[in-house]
Every structure is written in C-alpha cells, then in structure tokens.
Amino acid sequence: MNHSWVEIDIGRLKQNIRALRSSVPSETAVIFVVKADAYSHGMVPVARAAAEEGINWFAVAFLDEALKIRTALPDVNILVMGLVLPEHVGELLEKRIFPIVTCLEHGLALAEAARAMGKTLPVHLKVDTGMGRLGVQWNEVSATVKALNEAGGLELIGVCSHFARVEPDQPDHASAQAEKFNEALKHLPAKIFKHLSSSRAALYFSGWDLDGIRQGIVLYGYGANDPKGRFQTKPILQWKARVVQVKKVPADFAVGYYSTYRTEYPTQIATLAVGYADGYNRALSNKGDVLIGGRRCAVVGRVSMNWITVDVGPDAKVKMGDEAVLIGQQGEESVWADELSKICRTIPYEILTSINAALMRKYV
Ligand SMILES: Cc1ncc(COP(=O)(O)O)c(C=O)c1O
Predict the structure, then answer these.
(1) Parent domain of 300
(2) What is the pLDDT of residues 183-218, one digit of tens each?
(3) Contact by Cβ (8 Å): 123, 98
(4) For ligand 1, is residue 198 a contact (CB within 6 Å)?
(5) Residue 100, domain member (yes or no)
(6) Residue 346: inside a domain, yes or no?
(7) What total of structural domains would you count in the chain?
(8) Which atom of ligand 1 is nearest to the CA of 202?
C-alpha cells in the first residue's frame, strides 16, 4: 500500500497541449519545458505523451535530463537551458542536444572543444535582456557573435531570452525586454530560430510568438484559467495520501507538536501518511485543507515529517485506508496547487516541484 502517491492525467495533458497548440500559429514551435522532472510530473512519461501529441521540442535545465529524453525520444529537438561544460561537447554532438551559450567565455570554451574534435557544434545564444541571470548582455551580442564567428567551431542556430516580468495590464517591462531582444537580433542571421516567450507571455501576447515559445506551467495546468488569455488549461496532477488512523476525540483535545491546535468540540481526527518529507509544506500547518470523502477537511496541528492530522468532523464515516486528496479533486470539491501556494506565500511551481520525486507516479 502506497502511503502517498501522485496521479497524472495524461488525457488532460494532451488536451492542454491541444488548447495551446490551436491558439498559436502553426509555424511557431511549442518548446515544452520539462526540467525539474517535468515540474514533478515525471519527465519521461510526460515528454512521451507530449511527443504523441506532436510536440517535438523539449527544454531542460541540465545535460543529464536531456540525455534521458534522448533515450526515450530519439528524434525530438532538445535544448539545455543551463550551462553545459566543454568536456560534454562530444555527448552533445553524438546525442544531437543543443546547449545554450551563456557568455563569451563559455562560447569560446565550447568552440575550442568542438574544433579539437574537428566538428561544428550547433548552439543557441542566450541573451540577457533584463532577467539578469544567464546570458550575454543584449548590448554585447554584436561583439560576442563577432568573436565566436572568428573562433569557429560553433554554428549559431538559435537565439533566446527570458522575460523577468510579464503583466498583461502593464506590458512596459516585457516590451522593453522585447525591444532589447530585437536590437540583439540585428547582429544575428535573419533565419536564426528565435524564442522568447514563456507561459505568461504566450498567454497574453501573440506578438512575441516568433519561431518558438517555451512553455512550462500552463501545460501543467496552472496560470491559464483567465478567460482573457489566449487559451485555457487545467491541472493534470493529483496528489493523494492514505488515512492511517481515525480517532474520536473530545473538545479541548491537543493535536500535534507543541499542541498548536485544540479541538473546539468533540470530533474525529484523521492522521494521513504524508508530511514535509514528502514535500507537504509546513506552512500548511493549521491552514491547509485536504479532501476526504468529497469534503474539505482542515489540516489541524503542525505538519510533521511523515504525517499530517486533519479534522474530519464528528459524523464523518472516514476509516483507516481511505484515500485523501492533497492536490486535486473529489466530487465537487477541489484543492489545487495555486490555493496551497497562496497559503504558503509561494508560487504553484514551488508547490509542485517540492513533491518528493520518490513518491510513486501513476499515469492515467
Ligand atoms: C529560461 C526559461 N524558459 C522558460 C521557462 C518556462 O517557464 P513557465 O513555466 O513560466 O512557462 C523557464 C522556467 O523556469 C525558464 O527558466
């Protein structure tokens, strides 16, 4: 019996892909961002399902992720958005994986490794237009491209940048970044593959679709339920745990570490086999809800390492072994990662990627 597990709705993932695909031009590639184990959804099964739906571009953060995708999907395009060291140029070439060049020094090191093998390495250039993280500063692209061309060994086949801030009602910040990107493009071949938008940009702005859009969170079903957006998607991940004990308790019964909760009336407390070691955020102590038997039940007391305690009410017929939903839907009720993220003062991305990778994933 699994104490806690994750269920991924592959049919809904495919619907999400179709919703996105049908609202962007056919000449714009959808680059599915499947880093961090596909935001905890399980990278290889998710990528396989997406490929069945026609996705042939995947983006990851690290080379080891890219290699796993290559083994599963021999023909798709794979982009590594983080740093790949020059000692891995052989693998990049052999496995047809595209790295990004993050700065001139990195580009020259990759170029040297490729030249030493008598090869030309296809790369994408990352331009920093205002994220301040990875990439060549937008106004240094001209000098960088010149130096890389002189060095030889690289073929610049793509160019990208990443928005720091996308606000549909205040597009100034994103527009300023897009302008800097356009400025940088003047120093690159006209036919180069250009990609700029992540989820929020693609959701609200068609002008930045270009040759590809890098899409993560919306395909997992978050951030895209606004009717003003270009498409709508629904969450595909449910997280469940077993009830391992139910006890009838009187009023003023203390629950959990440091007795931070005392019952107000006689009730039943169910203990579920999930805790912060599984990724259930401790900030949900005395704040979160779970679903049992189609009803919302409050998390009472502190979230502990392997267990949480919930008030199922005096009359509920909950018993040991029952299924509880931590993220997902039961009957008419639902609790999604965005609800939990608000309580935890974080973002759905962190709620999802915190779910322990060791928990079983079921694909339905
Ligand atoms: C460079 C880059 N592009 C695209 C994405 C996808 O972002 P989102 O999930 O908001 O679509 C990420 C995610 O962190 C990223 O780092």
Answers:
(1) 237-363
(2) 999 999 999 999 999 999 999 999 999 999 999 999
(3) yes
(4) yes
(5) yes
(6) yes
(7) 2
(8) 11
